[in-house]
């Protein structure tokens, strides 16, 4: 067994409007773990996006890896983990899902669990509570997923979306637990039918890669954006400005506060320049869908293979 690995997991955006808790898209923003088997636990954060004062016993990576090993009656051996991340915490870019997926892979490697892809989808989605971000981080590309009462995930996997995505990241956090508190407990039937129809049309448009319709239905959500938008800095202004600059559509990324636009590749660079001038308080990044999902490199004599 190798004693050193590099685990790379893409972040993700979820929902894309009305695809609530079921649609995810991986992005080329990454969580990167270099893992070495050692005699004692050590987790070192090497990015500004990561806090530097978390004790091992409270660390998400450690706890999820330990929980995963325990599911298979294994004991987790100690490791030194060096973490780098391009995913800001609590911004709606799948940072927690990426960490969960990475931790499951960590346990898989160092405990020789031999997990299948389906195992990884099931375990990560069960821990997250819904399959949107987790399935996208495992598989890459776009995922449309459902998790049944037994925690088994069924996913339609769409690759090679030919579009660019721009994320507008404000300098504020919004935890999903807080964003869920503003949602209604139930919807009137007619309202729910319209919301469900919009979600169906978004999924169909994504599968058929009809980008004009994707943008239209991204902006048709009735499940969560009407209630969360008041928590999001400049949400309406970004919507309008993005449309004027040529975006197909704009929606919350997950629960927010990040906002994401889909747009034609040919206008992507100019779009970013325009938006940076309009919204100087936001970090604005041009991203592409990640096509690979989680991947692992073995390190032999400090050389990646």
From TrEMBL:
Domain (GHMP kinase N-terminal): residue spans on this chain: 61-141
Q: Where in the cell is it found?
A: Cytoplasm
Q: Which SUPFAM superfamilies match?
A: GHMP Kinase, C-terminal domain (SSF55060), Ribosomal protein S5 domain 2-like (SSF54211)
The reply on keyword rRNA processing is no
Class of the enzyme per the UniProt entry, highest EC level = transferase
Q: Which InterPro entries match?
A: GHMP_kinase_C_dom, GHMP_kinase_C_sf, GHMP_kinase_N_dom, GHMP_knse_ATP-bd_CS, Homoserine_kinase, Ribosomal_Su5_D2-typ_SF, Ribsml_uS5_D2-typ_fold_subgr
Which reaction does this enzyme catalyse, per its entry? Answer: L-homoserine + ATP = O-phospho-L-homoserine + ADP + H(+)
- Family assignment? Belongs to the GHMP kinase family. Homoserine kinase subfamily.
- Which EC number(s) does UniProt give? 2.7.1.39
- In Swiss-Prot or TrEMBL terms, this protein is called Homoserine kinase
Pathway(s) annotated for this protein in UniProt: Amino-acid biosynthesis; L-threonine biosynthesis; L-threonine from L-aspartate: step 4/5
Q: Name one GO biological process term.
A: threonine biosynthetic process
- GHMP kinase C-terminal domain: residues covered: 203-279
Which residues of the sequence carry a binding annotation for ATP? 88-98
Taxonomic source organism? Ureibacillus chungkukjangi
Its Gene Ontology molecular function terms? ATP binding; homoserine kinase activity
Q: Name one GO cellular component term.
A: cytoplasm
Protein's job? Catalyzes the ATP-dependent phosphorylation of L-homoserine to L-homoserine phosphate.
Q: Which PANTHER family match?
A: HOMOSERINE KINASE, HOMOSERINE/4-DIPHOSPHOCYTIDYL-2-C-METHYL-D-ERYTHRITOL KINASE
Question: What domain of life does the UniProt record list for this protein's source?
Answer: Bacteria
Q: Keyword annotations for this protein?
A: Amino-acid biosynthesis, ATP-binding, Cytoplasm, Kinase, Nucleotide-binding, Threonine biosynthesis, Transferase
């Amino acid at each position: 067994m190798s004693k050193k690995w590099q685990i790379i997991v893409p972040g993700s955006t979820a929902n894309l409007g009305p695809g609530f808790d079921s649609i995810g898209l991986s992005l080329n923003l990454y969580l990167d773990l270099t893992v070495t088997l050692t005699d004692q636990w050590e987790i070192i954060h090497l990015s500004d996006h990561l806090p530097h004062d978390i004790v091992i016993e409270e660390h998400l990576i450690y706890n999820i890896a330990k929980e995963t090993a325990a599911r298979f009656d294994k004991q987790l051996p100690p490791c030194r983990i060096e973490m780098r991340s391009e995913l800001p915490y609590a911004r709606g870019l799948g940072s927690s899902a990426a960490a969960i997926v990475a931790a499951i892979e960590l346990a898989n490697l160092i405990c020789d669990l031999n997990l299948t892809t389906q195992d990884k989808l099931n375990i990560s989605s069960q821990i997250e509570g819904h399959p949107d971000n987790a399935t996208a981080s495992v598989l890459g590309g776009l995922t449309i997923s459902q998790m049944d009462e037994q925690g088994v995930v069924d996913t339609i996997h769409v690759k090679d979306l030919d579009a660019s995505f721009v994320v507008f990241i404000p300098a504020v956090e919004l935890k999903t637990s807080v964003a869920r508190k503003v949602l209604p407990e139930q919807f009137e039937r007619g309202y729910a039918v319209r919301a469900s129809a919009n979600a169906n049309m978004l999924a169909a448009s994504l599968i058929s890669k009809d980008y004009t319709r994707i943008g239209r239905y991204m902006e048709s959500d009735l499940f969560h954006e009407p209630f969360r938008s008041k928590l999001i800095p400049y949400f309406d202004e970004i919507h309008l400005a993005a449309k004027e600059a040529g975006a197909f559509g704009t929606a919350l990324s997950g629960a927010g506060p990040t906002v994401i636009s889909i747009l034609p590749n040919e206008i992507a660079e100019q779009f970013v320049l325009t938006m940076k001038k309009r919204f100087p308080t936001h970090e604005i990044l041009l991203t592409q869908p990640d096509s690979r999902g989680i991947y692992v490199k073995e390190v032999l004599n400090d050389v990646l293979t």
